[in-house]
Amino acid sequence: MADFKTLDDIGDVGGKRVLVRVDLNVPVADGKVGDTTRIERIIPTLEELSKKGAKVILLAHFGRPKGGPAAEFSLDPIAAAIEAILGKPVAFAASCIGEEASKAVAAMKDGDILLLENTRFHKGEEKNDPAFTEQLAANGDIYVNDAFSTAHRAHASTEGLARQLPAYAGRTMEAELKALEKGLGKPAKPVIAIVGGAKVSTKIDLLMNLVKKVDALVIGGGMANTFLAAQGANVGKSLCEHDLADTARQIMTEAAQAGCAIVLPSDGVIAREFKAGATSETVAIDKVPADAMILDVGEKTVASVNEWIDRAATLVWNGPLGAFEIEPFDAATVSAAKHAAARTRAGKLVSVAGGGDTVAALNHAGVADDFTYVSTAGGAFLEWMEGKPLPGVEVLKA
Question: Has 199 been annotated as catalytic?
């Protein structure tokens, strides 16, 4: 990754104030953090900087506060969660700018860690306001971005600061960028993509970009129904965007021109109601009854998907193959995920996955740790897959 300056390029940080942008958008209930995955990911960067004697000052947003500070969006309870995982004290300042912040920074000793309050309590954050950025920069000598998940936003703490201070990618950001480079930047071929989820409308840009970059595109979830309907199949009462038939046909035409195979379901698991334990059966895709819904792809389709995974050197995955939240409609996603994980463990596949539902589906299948890389970034991962430049990454390029 010669394009990006990382912690390897940072030099001596002893006594320096290092502003580290992190992602602390974690679930909090009754003052306790529910899932600490995002906190665990930033620990290597914090430990490395702290051990080298830096004064580590954390910047983050939390939720979407409207119009100023609000108690439910305070980062205060998260300081304790970081402290517990890091095993050393984490101080907290009730503002990210002004006297409160500068006093807390002035009180730091080398190696100390301080969390500043929610950057989104100030309107200047999302506006990337230069005056607000200067107030943030006043507390730092160096800027490190370790929050890939916010890199698609040109905000003061994600993009503005990198223009004001010497800027570097943290270890999490570095790992993410390296993994993404292996996924679609300079991948080992053949490359296949699995894209699922409910709606084509939310992933048009993604599909248009992928058909030009991959050798095969597997389409699952509710999205597949829109493609099937566009080919004249009757999908019964299944989730389907009939108004996007032309778009689906255009994507298939572009894929054919680019030499990308489109893999659609050949059979489906159908039910009359969408609930756990609903009576279900598997039918050929051209035999879906008018009163039924397709809620998962069938075994023949899974066998075909697994064959494509066997041929691939690189797999990029975004979105489940079926309604995996409810059994038995999780079967196809679990089967394909386990197959991809086994190929990855055997050293035969580079597997990169991301997006909220995808992470949940891989965790449900028990294989998230077996993939080459699983991105916890939702919007940023999708925009990267769509081929869009990410402001928070672009600004880190050397």
Answer: yes
Give how far Cα 148 sits from Cα of 43, 331, 369, 378, 383, Å.
Answer: 15, 31, 19, 10, 11
Instruction: State the pLDDT at residue 1.
Output: 43
Nearest residue to 354 (alpha-carbon basis) of 391, 315, 324, 394:
315
Choice among 53, 98, 379, 387 that is catalytic: 379
Q: pTM of whole model > 0.90?
A: no
pLDDT at 330 over 60: yes
- pLDDT exceeding 70 applies to what percent of the chain? 99
Omega prior to 190 cis, within 30 of 0: yes
* Domain annotation for the chain: domains and CATH numbers: 7-171 (3.40.50.1260), 187-385 (3.40.50.1260)
pLDDT in tens, 361-381: 999 999 999 999 999 888 888
Residues 188/313, Cβ–Cβ less than 8 Å: yes
Question: With 60 as the cut, is the pLDDT of residue 2 above it?
Answer: no
Determine whether 356 is an active site residue: yes
Active-site choice (199, 300, 338, 388): 199
179 pLDDT more than 60: yes
pLDDT of residue 277: 86
User: 63 an active-site residue?
Assistant: no
Q: Which of the residues 5, 16, 17, 38 is marked catalytic? A: 38
**Catalytic residue list contains 88:** no
Active-site annotation holder among 63, 98, 111, 356: 356
